[in-house]
Specification:
single chain; 270 residues; 5-stranded mixed beta sheet
Length: 270
């Protein structure tokens, strides 16, 4: 059976679990890392195979009826060059994915204490060609949380500024992409939760930077997106008024639970 046919058969199988598990923090990044590692291993296996053929040909070269090892050696050298050139971006991609995955796991751990304050916590919510890192539902409302894990230079500043329009580092660099991404994902989540419902829910976009200190430089009323260190999220929530009843929290949590389970139930493997 071919690999593609085997993969197709796997996808057609349905999970035997009546209640599949919810997704974990960083699960999409973990799956992407595995895909990259599998692809690199496949290329490496081909390279090793060609090296083996070349070695056999060189052994035969010294036999009474020598063969020509140069064609196979050429193929082996080409495979080595190809694998090495492909390895370099793979290493960088996997390193960045691991950094993002670990950041999501750290934030996931920091969100767990919020359960004691009446919040429901969800991780790695699948969307259309993207995923929402975290979402929490509780008395203060619904919050979509995007984790941004940035490496810090040794001895450099760990501080950034947010004025409601852009995020700026102390060296003068500024960026808006995380804000646009958070707004778009929060709107998508709101549309998902409001689909077919009489009640209209709003979702607050939040961007968190683990291990960074975020200083707000503009009025909070102008900041539709929260940008903060994840450790400060609990204090932000404590100052928010209660906007969701217990029934509303249960309804939204049920909808999110069903959505998060659906891809595993429909996909899957035994």
């Amino acid at each position: 059976m071919s690999v593609s046919a085997w993969n197709t058969n796997r996808q057609l199988r349905r999970s035997q679990l009546k209640t599949p598990p919810l997704r974990l923090p960083g699960q999409s990044l973990e799956e992407r890392i595995s895909e990259l590692q599998d692809t690199f291993m496949q290329d490496s296996i081909v390279t090793v195979f060609l090296i083996l053929i070349a070695g056999i040909e060189w052994l035969r070269w010294w036999m009474p009826t020598p063969s020509n090892p140069f064609p196979s050696t050429t193929l082996a050298v080409a495979a080595i060059i190809y694998t090495w050139r492909k390895r370099l971006p793979f290493v960088s991609m996997i390193r960045n994915l691991r950094l993002g995955r670990d950041g999501e796991r750290v934030v996931g751990e920091l969100l767990e204490p919020l359960r004691g304050k009446g919040y429901r916590v969800f991780h790695d919510i699948p969307g259309a060609n993207f995923n929402i890192d975290h979402a929490i539902v509780g008395p203060a409302g619904i919050f979509m949380i995007e984790t941004k894990t940035r490496s810090k230079l040794t001895g450099g500043s760990h501080k950034m500024f947010y004025d409601g329009q852009a995020i700026r580092l102390e060296d003068g660099r500024s960026f808006q992409k995380p804000l646009k991404q958070a707004r778009a994902q929060a709107q998508w989540l709101a549309n998902l939760l409001n689909d077919g419902r009489g009640t209209t829910f709003t979702v607050r976009p939040v961007v968190v930077f683990p291990e960074w200190y975020v200083e707000r430089t503009g009025p909070r009323s102008m900041q539709d997106v929260w940008v903060l260190n994840p450790k400060a999220l609990g204090k932000f929530l404590d100052h928010e008024p209660q906007v969701l009843s217990t029934d509303a929290i249960n309804a939204v949590s049920h909808a999110l639970t069903q959505h998060c389970r659906r891809p595993i139930t429909e996909g899957s493997e035994e």
